[in-house]
Design a protein that fits this description.
The protein is α/β, with parallel strands linked by helices. About 40% of the residues lie in helices and about 10% in strands. The N terminus is likely disordered. The structure holds pyridoxal-5'-phosphate.
């Protein structure tokens, strides 16, 4: 590649040969086209993995010395396809049924490529991202609109502080920013003075179903880990317990977090009831709704009612890379009061002091990629009607899964699904369903999941969750979890994965080694 000379007096321009730009560009173009073909083949694959190896075997294959000489790009791409790609997880495979980060929406893939090529930097607007900044504000406004948050008139959008939110790298970052807002709300000025009274910065979360990002974010932003866990009932706050906690910790609580779709069962909180309980106990408490999953409920008239009341929360987190088939990483945090982010803005003479510089309102971030173009493309490509159809299909797939589970006596469902997740257990045939051995059931399901992952042909997720009352209320269970987000799921996949789990379950209980280990 020919570089522009840094100092003309040292490298006179005339001493450089002109680069054979056309040929080179043509070669690059055809190579990049072949890369798209490789990517499409990968995503279209039925299987999750092309090859499955233990971590040490992958380590020994991949960790090598940095070579002295370069490798021609075509050769390098072939090496990637042989060495790395077969081991990559294809979450767009219809056999990957544990999560839904498929990243396979065609419009969002186009947006991802175009944002990479255009290399805009949303830290500034004027010279750095003249149009991208406004496309990002448009996406934030569409998102607010779906959630029921009011937008200012376009002519009143005179700075980034009227965008009503920021795009971030994920739900974890969005929740962290929401906790910063809560902290600043509780102790105004702590951005300047530091935290003077950490005893006031406790955060209420529902026990056993929360996402680790809230606890972690409190540690990251200097609040300590003052999490108050409140008992749940059917994966929602036990409202009496919530009221008692608000009373017992009066003055100490900076925020209450409600899950509009928790990360295990996707159960949506009774958002109105939690809002009312909190506001009547102490109206100064920051109310945060984590809608990383629940945002999807807003897509369809059939599910929208589930998140009624979310527009009353001070901040809301959404995670499109989980629910909109958008490639990583796109999340956003929205605020009920459009200008709320001003409280945690920062200034530097390295960021343009201009009205539309997102660098001023995005904590922890300097150079800021145009990740929202993926979402701009996806939302425009589908429109409101398209999003509704996507969500309606997921709910239909979920009903099909539930019917299939219920038709098989070996399975127990832990809840009725609000959205796109179902947690369930395989019960060994010799268990007494009225007096089951929970420890054994947990061990068997843990072993099933271990074998499922090692095999790699199907994927379900696993976690611990308090028993909502199926066997012994509050006892920790280790269920498997199916998710109905992947657009390629058909009935044969539902039948296939359950057949496989049943056969693994029978293998586990018949395995003398497993029985001995226990
Ligand atoms: C996944 C998830 C997060 C974190 O999102 P990332 O994009 O993984 O950072 C936060 N909250 C909930 C409820 C989640 O499910």
């Amino acid at each position: 590649m020919t570089l522009a000379p840094e100092r003309e007096e040292i490298h006179p321009i005339g001493s450089y040969q002109p680069a054979p730009a056309v040929t080179r560009d043509d070669q690059v173009r055809s190579l990049l086209r072949s890369v798209i073909d490789t990517g499409m083949e990968f995503k279209g694959r039925e299987q999750i993995y092309g090859e499955r190896l233990a971590p040490e075997a992958i380590r020994d294959r991949v960790l090598d010395e940095f070579p002295e000489t370069g490798t021609a790009l075509p050769e390098l791409i072939e090496e990637f396809k042989a060495k790395l790609l077969p081991l990559c997880k294809n979450e767009a495979s219809p056999q990957f049924l544990g999560f839904g980060d498929t990243g396979d929406d065609p419009a969002s893939l186009a947006g991802g490529l175009l944002s990479m090529f255009t290399q805009q930097n949303l830290i500034n607007q004027s010279f750095d991202s003249p149009s991208a900044t406004f496309a990002e504000i448009a996406v934030l406004r569409w998102t607010r609109d779906l959630l029921g948050l009011a937008n200012p008139a376009v002519s009143d959008v005179t700075s980034v502080w009227q965008a009503g939110g920021v795009v971030t790298t994920g739900g974890t970052m969005s929740n962290t920013i929401a906790m910063m807002l809560a902290r600043e709300n509780k102790i105004p000025g702590s951005m300047q003075t530091g935290i003077t009274d950490p005893s006031k910065l406790a955060v209420v979360v529902p026990r056993g179903i929360g996402h680790y990002s809230v606890r972690s974010s409190l540690a990251w932003i200097g609040c300590g880990s003052a999490v108050i866990e409140v008992d749940t009932d059917g994966f929602r706050y036990d409202l009496d317990a919530l009221r008692r906690a608000l009373e017992a910790h009066q003055g100490r609580i900076m925020a209450v977090v409600a899950y509009a779709g928790d990360s295990r069962a996707h159960t949506v909180e009774d958002l109105h009831a939690v809002h009312d309980a909190v506001r009547s106990a102490d109206p100064s408490i920051w109310l945060h709704a984590d809608a990383c999953w629940g945002f999807a409920a807003t897509f369809s008239p059939a599910t929208k009612h589930l998140v009624d009341g979310i527009e009353l929360y001070d901040s809301i987190t959404v995670d499109p890379h989980k629910v909109m088939a958008v490639p990583y990483a796109v999340s956003a945090v929205l605020t009920r009061e459009v200008g709320a982010l001003r409280a945690i803005s920062s200034h530097s003479d390295l960021i343009m002091q201009e009205d539309f510089a997102f660098g001023q309102v995005t904590p922890f971030v300097g150079s800021k990629p145009w990740s929202s173009l993926k979402l701009w493309m996806m939302m425009r490509a589908h429109g409101r009607a398209g999003l509704a159809a996507i969500m309606d299909r997921r709910m239909a797939v979920m009903r099909g899964f539930v019917a299939e589970l219920d038709a098989r006596p070996a399975f127990v469902r832990l809840h009725d699904p609000d959205l796109t997740a179902q947690a369930f257990l395989w019960i060994p045939p010799d268990e007494d369903h009225t007096m089951p051995d929970i420890e054994r059931i947990n061990a068997v399901n843990t072993e099933i999941h271990k074998r499922l992952l090692a095999d790699g042909s199907w994927h379900l997720h696993q976690f611990t969750i308090p028993d909502p009352g199926r066997f012994e209320r509050g006892r920790l269970l280790r269920p498997l979890r199916f998710m109905s987000i992947n657009r390629r799921i058909e009935r044969r996949h539902v039948v296939g994965v359950l057949d496989f789990v049943e056969s693994l379950g029978r293998q586990v209980v018949a395995d003398p080694n497993f029985t001995k280990e226990r």
